[in-house]
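User: Can you help me understand a structure? I only have the sequence.
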Amino acid sequence: MKVTSHRIAHTAFWLLFVFFSTACVRAENPATSPEPRNTWMDQHNRLLQTVQQTPGARLVFVGDSITQNWNSRGKDVWAERYANLPAINLGVSGDRTENILWRMQNGELDGLDPAVIVVMAGTNNIHRDSAAQIAEGVETIVEEILVRCPDSQVLLMGIFPRSSNPNATERVKIREINATLAQMAGDPRVDFLDIGGLLLKPDGTMDRELFPDSLHPLAPGYVIWADAIAPTIDPLVSRK
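Assistant: Let's start by predicting it. Here is the structure, written out as tokens:
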């Protein structure tokens, strides 16, 4: 009995060790630790008002500046395709995954039950975090959304390409991240779509007339984005 008890205690110790070690590793990933940005608290509060005023939103976009720019560069496409659904844009320029996660945990999804939530996140983490950390950060956002909006379908976008050089470090990291994120489509409530190839020239370089800063698409990029996601979101939005 002493031997058995010792083995049980030994096994229990290692299980606890592995559990807490895993928890510590996750906690040490800045991309998964919810974090507000004092510089955008007013903007967060305005988004909360929008959410409260649009409880029947059928489509929600969540993300950073590329998403926020639906309000500017993509405004004509938005007005034509999404405004009357109605739809909500929860994009905030400069947000990293941990900032988006904080916003989702602090009211920006409260009371919403959209048919589809489109998620675009991670590009602002590129120069700080590893590919694995960024992928985990995006996955944490998706998991948060699935809990808070259990009847919604998530359309997870692959991170858009950045840098005109196809072999740039950022491009390599983004491909690695997107390959990991694609695995989330194993969940029936998650669709994954990478449209990076549609935004590039055949040789993999960027069209400067589409991406003048090699990061943020101009208006034609939002047409490409809207056309690419239409087959996924249109049937869901019209059905629910």
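Now, to help you interpret it: Residues 142 and 154 are 7 Å apart (CA to CA). The first strand starts at residue 59 and ends at 63. Let me know which part you'd like to focus on.
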